[in-house]
Specification:
alpha/beta; Chemotaxis Receptor Methyltransferase Cher, domain 1; Rossmann fold; disordered N terminus
Length: about 280
């Protein structure tokens, strides 16, 4: 495919050279990989940036993001090309595992004065960490009185702002189990809000997974689901290794249904359920 030429449905000429230059810049910044099959997707998302900026060509846009003053637009471009698909209690087998196998011992530790930490990596607009918080509150209604915290991170500041507000369209309410809805949400005419008891358990923070990580762990549970699919296998392997380095033995890592653990991490994890891995000191041969 040499170019997406201007037609009645295409405003701007977008060549493969444009695609490769811009996608390479985003990959360097975020690790997100864009094979040639994504050229149309990249075009459809970036034409909105050209319109917003009043630019006439992708040549102008390339010059802008490469310029000394283009760092803010580079971030805007990366956000535009980041896919954020999520919902409450997505892949619910993970929450069943969390409830049945993890929360009992973790709550006992918290009641004894211990520390419990969970990381939602690639949290998007917050539905995942709020689902975790609601699952904790069902088991321990006064959880905010203990040292229990959920770290929720994402590259996109726009989706993090949504998560911090904890306000969602009414049509998403059905994704939350009825008993949790009754206890931990407030329903309004056009939206609902997550209760402060759940919001208080979560810290939303901006994080580019390709950068140094400020947190040191340890994390008893990590949710990193449908994030790695956008990276090359080499980057995936390095990120899996970095994650489990922050986890103690017997902690758990939940991954997406289409993802696989690769690289050095495979020697330190054993399967403990559907796309669920438990860290061990040394995996069995």
């Amino acid at each position: 495919m040499s170019a997406i030429e201007a037609t009645t449905t295409t405003e701007f000429r977008f060549t493969q050279a444009h695609f490769r230059e811009l996608s390479a810049m985003v990959e360097k910044l975020t690790g997100n990989n864009f094979p040639d099959s994504k050229q149309t997707l990249v075009y459809s998302r970036l034409v909105r940036r050209l319109r917003a900026l009043g630019l006439q060509t992708f040549d102008e846009y390339c010059r802008l993001v490469k310029s000394p003053t283009g760092s803010e637009e580079l971030h805007q471009m990366a956000e535009a090309l980041t896919t954020n698909v999520t919902k409450f209690f997505r892949e619910d087998h993970h929450f069943t595992h969390l409830k049945n196998k993890m929360l009992g011992p973790l709550i006992q530790r918290a009641k004894a004065g211990g520390r419990v930490r969970i990381w939602s990596a690639g949290c998007s607009s917050g539905q995942e960490p709020y689902s975790i918080a609601l699952q904790i509150l069902q088991a321990l209604p006064d959880a905010r009185g203990y040292d229990i915290k959920i770290l929720a991170t994402d590259f996109s500041t726009k989706v993090l702002d949504i998560g911090k507000r904890g306000r969602y369209p009414l049509e998403e309410l059905s994704g939350i189990p009825a008993d949790m809805r009754a206890s931990w949400t407030d329903k309004f005419t056009e939206y609902f809000e997550i209760d402060e008891a759940a919001r208080s358990l979560i810290q939303f923070k901006h994080l580019n997974l390709m950068d140094p990580w400020p947190m040191k762990g340890p994390f008893d549970v990590i949710f990193c689901r449908n994030v790695m699919i956008y990276f090359t296998q080499d980057i995936q392997s390095r990120l899996w290794a970095r994650m489990i380095a922050l986890q103690p033995a017997d902690s758990v890592l939940y991954i997406g249904h289409s993802e696989r653990i690769t690289g050095p991490a495979t020697g330190k994890l054993v399967l403990d359920g559907i796309t669920t891995y438990r860290k061990v000191e040394r995996a069995s041969a």
